[in-house]
Specification:
Elements: H1 2-30, H2 41-51, E1 58-62, E2 69-71, E3 76-80, H3 81-85, H4 89-106, H5 110-138, H6 142-179, H7 188-226
Helix pairs in contact: 1-7, 2-4, 4-6, 4-7, 5-6, 6-7
Length: 227
């Protein structure tokens, strides 16, 4: 049992680290490769937005490293400074990906709507699930552990729903940068590598969340047997 737990904890620690290394490695490599269009990330984002009639969506610079995101509340694509001003393949890929979320918002993409609706529940689950589980385990209250597991399950569902949202945004990004001539044919492979590496972080997060949920379910069933 002890060896199994060591393997388990090694997995939940190593999987996210491996994903982050892949992202950083791909970004570092392709942020040094200029795109053939020489468009800044901000220009890439604006070009795709305007082509899709999203004139009301703004593009802003934000601080931090790889802090790029789309804010559906303010209809804003925010790009980190290096991608906002960068002319690289990586900057173009990331800018296009974030615009992919804006396009999802425009077409009312169902998984994106589901993810947005799950945000309050997922935040609640992330914040309170462990408190309930730890108290339940210390006090041998299996019902409290079960309640914590239910809260955690909501957070896991959020992680799983995030996967199709992110992969779809990347696919939309590829379609846009290719059809608009922002990248050449020989740059498609490099662009896809950046997008795939970024997606790995979401896959890793979902995998770790599912593993942890399964472990807690096993703990709960063990408590039930001993009662």
């Amino acid at each position: 049992m002890g060896f199994s737990f060591l393997i388990y904890f090694a997995l939940i620690i190593l999987i996210p680290i491996w994903a982050q290394l892949k992202v950083k490695g791909a970004y570092k490599k392709y942020s040094q490769v200029p795109s053939s269009s020489h468009m800044r990330g901000a220009e890439v984002a604006r070009r795709i937005l305007d082509t899709n009639g999203l004139y009301d969506v703004t593009v802003e610079e934000t601080r931090g490293h790889l802090t790029d995101h789309y804010d559906p509340r303010s209809k804003t694509v925010r790009l980190s400074s290096e991608n906002y001003h960068g002319h690289s393949v990586a900057a173009a890929a990331i800018a296009a990906h974030e615009v992919g979320h804006a396009i999802q918002d425009q077409v009312d993409y169902a998984p994106l709507r589901i993810r947005h609706s799950l945000v309050p529940v997922a935040n609640l689950g992330s914040n309170f699930s462990w408190i309930l589980i730890i108290i339940g385990m210390l006090a041998s209250l299996s019902n409290l552990v079960l309640l914590g597991i239910i809260f955690m399950a909501a957070a896991v569902v959020f992680q799983l729903v995030t996967l199709p949202v992110e992969f779809n945004a990347s696919n939309r990004a590829m379609d846009q940068v290719v059809s608009l001539g922002i990248i050449r044919n020989d740059e498609e492979k490099e662009t896809r590598k950046v997008l795939d590496a970024a997606a790995l972080t979401y896959v890793a997060a979902a995998a770790v969340a599912v593993l942890e949920l399964l472990r807690l379910v096993l703990i709960y069933t063990g408590m039930q047997r001993s009662e």
